[in-house]
Amino acid sequence: MKRSTFDTLLSFLLGFAWALLLLGSWLLFHITAIFGFSIALLTTIVFIFLMFCVILMLEGLNLYKERVENQREQTRLLQRIAELLESEA
Where are the transmembrane segments (predicted)? Predict the structure, then answer.
């Protein structure tokens, strides 16, 4: 099945978001560690929470797109069935 540009872009953004989550949280913890462990841990947790929100948003877009594609396919099939039933009657 051919993938659209939107699918490719969405997959790229999801991969980038996961990479940013992993590398960004590690880097943020080490950068803010000079201010103390508790501050470093708090900023890292906030960053991880925000990145999970971004990932969930992108996954939601992906699920919505798949649902719309499935509904279009079902509509096309139902229209074809209706045409076949009308031609038989």
Answer: 9-29, 35-58
Residue the block writes with tokens 């939601």: 60
Instruction: Kindly report the number of other CB atoms within 10 A of residue 29's CB atom.
Output: 17
Spatial neighbors of 86 by CB under 8 A, at least 6 apart, are none
At 1 the pLDDT is 60
Counting the structural domains of the chain, the total is: 1
Task: Write the pLDDT tens digit of every residue in 25-69.
Answer: 999 999 999 999 999 999 999 999 999 999 999 999 999 999 999
Domain that holds residue 31: 5-88
Residue 42 tokens read as: 């708090």
State both tokens at 12: 């790229």
